Amino acid sequence: MTAMVHGSAVAIHGNGVLLLGPSGSGKSDLALRLIDRGAKLICDDVVNIENSNNLPVMICAPNIAGKIEVRGIGICPVEFVQSAPLRLIVQLTQDVDRMPPEHQRITLAGYSTPMFRLPPFQPSSAIKVEWALRSVIEAGLIPLANADAAFNESVTM
Description:
Blueprint: E1 2-12, E2 15-20, H1 27-36, E3 40-52, E4 55-60, E5 67-70, E6 74-77, E7 83-92, E8 105-108, E9 111-118, H2 125-138, E10 144-145, E11 154-156
């Protein structure tokens, strides 16, 4: 089964990071800055999440593979990877706790996944995403299947 999510996804050292937020919130912009720091695009705008061995994997839709929207420039080609396991969700918002609760999670596509809230347009936002991912990996946190969540859903955040 597949869940279709409105967001942008990148792989950092093979670990998938999903950027969520409303249209115009900075998902593609932050993805572009992460790519500039060495991340690989998985998909921009729509991300498919599939279950693979009880873990969520983000997969790009073939019709938009290797393309990212650069606001003010247009649709641009970029190096990409076809898929990566979901490890972290970053919810883009201006309302961020100075000291957030430890090990926050959000349920998406049937998985309770580690989550951080970050403002997208701060100069340090790309570095903060990398640090958040590192903290998730070092803590050994992975997405957990949520029996109460329907896997076959379409999510817009």
